[in-house]
Amino acid sequence: MSLLNVTDLKVSYGGIEALKGVSFQVKKGQIVTLIGANGAGKSTILRAISRLVSIKSGAINFDGRDITSLDTASIVGQGVVLVPEGRRVFPNLTVFENLKIGAYLRTNQKEVEDSIEYVYQRFPKLKERHWQLAGTLSGGEQQMLAVGRALMARPKLLMMDEPSLGLAPLVVREIFDIIRRLQQEGITILLIEQNANTALRTSQYAYVLETGRIIMEGPGIELLHNPQIRDAYLGQSRRK
Fold first, then answer.
1. Distance CA 178, CA 190 (A)
2. Does a structural domain hold residue 238?
3. 240 domain-assigned
4. Which of 7, 155, 178, 230 can bridge 236 by disulfide, Cβ–Cβ 3.0-4.6 Å?
5. What is the dihedral of CA 169, 170, 175, 180, to 10 degrees?
6. What crossing angle do the helices spanning 139-151 and 95-102 adopt, rounded to 10°?
7. Per mean pLDDT, which of 35-39, 68-72, 163-167, 170-174 is the most reliable?
8. Is the pLDDT confidence value at 10 over 80?
9. How large a percentage of the chain has pLDDT more than 70?
């Protein structure tokens, strides 16, 4: 069953058409990856779904409801939450304060406290740094905080934009372990990731984006072994 359906999505920046009629779906419970070169339009898709950029035309259906015309706060309220590229934590606020910001739409303080404990159980390092300023955390810890902050909004669909960007290989493995664990807990994930190899190995399904259009799709493991994809995005070739 599809949780998210995007149909003929078009987005323009000035006179430049960034998305040229993109259509795809994300099935409930899956990790789905968008891969493509820089400037292909991947981040624009996530920002359009979150209504951080204006949509020229097209439709976005989430969990059986048309959310195309909703504003950003309403979309978060529906359960669609973005972990932005570059983490975007508030550096002069503590870990705890950053997490509280993730629950800004929620009014039941007991439930918010329970959610903070939920995050701390999954990210023990954040609990250890409860009162530490976010700007003093390592890159990996800031990424954990960005994910934890998103979890405070109780997402049904968690959209992640380049979660491994700028992180050491060991930390990248830890972040992808977290992504797989969240999926096992029932959260559907739409992922953009520069590390196409790891992303395709992790994903049940993937779409390849090129200059604002989807040019290929299929199960992640099949695209991983596709010679065209390996040449273009994985820096490998099967040709002798």
1. 14
2. no
3. no
4. 230
5. 100
6. 30
7. 68-72
8. yes
9. 97
Q: Please, are residues 123 and 96 in contact by the beta-carbon 8 Å criterion? A: no
CATH for 49 = 3.40.50.300
Residue 78 backbone phi and psi in degrees, to 5: -75, -15
- Residue at 135 is within a domain: yes
- Domain range spanning residue 42? 2-233
Structure tokens at 127: 């609990």
Greater model confidence, 240 or 113? 113
Q: Where are the alpha helices (DSSP H) in the chain?
A: 42-49, 72-78, 95-102, 109-122, 124-128, 139-151, 169-184, 196-202, 220-224, 227-233
Are residues 225 and 233 in contact, defined by beta-carbon separation less than 8 angstroms? no
Give the count of domains, the chain: 1
CB atoms within 10 A of CB 238: 9
| Section 152-158 average pLDDT | 95
Domain presence at residue 172: yes
CA distances from 231 to 40, 53, 217 (A): 17, 32, 16
Return the C-alpha torsion angle 180, 190, 187, 111, nearest 10: 120
Query: Per-residue DSSP letters for 23-46?
Result: EEEEETT-EEEEE--TTSSHHHHH
Spatial separation of the C-alpha atoms in residues 233 and 19, rounded to whole Å: 20
pLDDT class for 127, splitting at 50, 70, 90? very high
Residue with the two structure tokens 């995007």: 6
